[in-house]
Amino acid sequence: MTGYALRRVLGVVPVMAVVALFVFGLLYVAGDPAAVLAGDKATPEQVEHIRVSLGLDQPFFIRFGHWIWRVLHGDLGTSIYTDQSVLLMIGQRVEPTLGLVVLTMIISIGIAVPLGVLAAWKRGTIIDRAMMVLSVLGFSVPVFVLGYVLAYWLAVRLDLLPAQGYAPLSAGIWAFLRHLILPASALGLAYIALIARITRASMLEVLSQDYVRTARAKGVLAGGVLFRHALKNAANPIVTVIGIGVATLIGGTVVTETVFAIPGLGRLTVDAIAHRDYPVIQGVVLLFSAAFVLVNLATDLLYRLFDPRIRY
Questions:
Q1: What is the pLDDT of residue 87?
Q2: DSSP string, 187-233
Q3: What is d(CA 65, CA 207) in angstroms, rounded to the nearest whole number?
Q4: CA 150 to chain centre
Q5: Whole-model pTM?
Q6: Which of 43, 54, 69, 229 is 20 to 30 Å apart from 23, CA to CA?
């Protein structure tokens, strides 16, 4: 297990190098960064001055090497718009986004896995059909539409939860969770639908195996058959889709934080794009990319935990 984990960890290094190169290259997608920052009315002398001040007159890979060296030392640059450290700005916004993503995963996995197991166990019944209908709805309804619907009913009409805003963890656990339940529920619907469908499909395959029929014939209770025998052997596809779904959550936080006025990394990204604040955009995208790579690494390690026969 140790050798397997070490090989997977070392495999992350070239992946992160490619990610860093891509993130750094984002600066040049919109054209000449100096011309974009200077504006349409800038003179060629002003554009050249900005280019020299930002080091854009040097070759691409030299600039990339300098940027990587600063990143490895914890320096993500300085915001062009606020003149603050990008790392400091990210640190101020990471708590709301992390709380939103973690709560969404807890809600989604806690609902979707039992729902998928139940649908597989009751295959062909009204419970199974109802789950499939909910899955289709979950994929079909956009996050921002569901967010407005939930805000209207749970916040405006019933006054159960706040419609917008955020309370930091220092204000208390309940205040922190109370402001995140609504956005986490809106963000997690598509995630629930995805996990539930994969859980159902994986469980159906496992439940048709001989050892499951043998367990039933020996009188093992339904709970033991489902969770002790079937779910563990069906876990790898479920873990895979949970890991892949993190990308959906990361992308969904941008819309969700905007709808619910949460001051997280999603809002920071939107503001940085509006102000063409390239260092902030690079820092946030690099952070999101690194998080996604680490989640995939954790998924690979969990494969071996659930199925020791796996080899690479």
A1: 93
A2: HHHHHHHHHHHHHHHHHHHHHTSHHHHHHHHTT--HHIIIIIIIHHH
A3: 53
A4: 21
A5: 0.85
A6: 43
Q: Which amino acid is at 147?
A: G
Q: Are 138 and 286 in contact (CB under 8 A)?
A: no
Name the CATH code of domain 89-306 (choices 1.10.3720.10, 2.60.40.10, 1.10.1470.10, 3.40.50.12240): 1.10.3720.10
Q: What is the C-alpha separation between 222 and 230, in angstroms, rounded?
A: 10
pLDDT in tens, 150-202: 888 888 888 889 988 999 999 999 999 999 999 999 898 888 988 999 999 99
Query: What ranges do the domains of the chain cover?
Result: 2-72, 89-306
- Identify the band that residue 136 occupies on the pLDDT scale cut at 50, 70 and 90: confident
Q: 220, exposed or middle or buried, with CB in 10 Å at 0-12, 13-18, 19+?
A: middle
What's the rounded Cα separation, in Å, for the pair 197 and 203?
Answer: 10
CA 221 to chain centre: 37
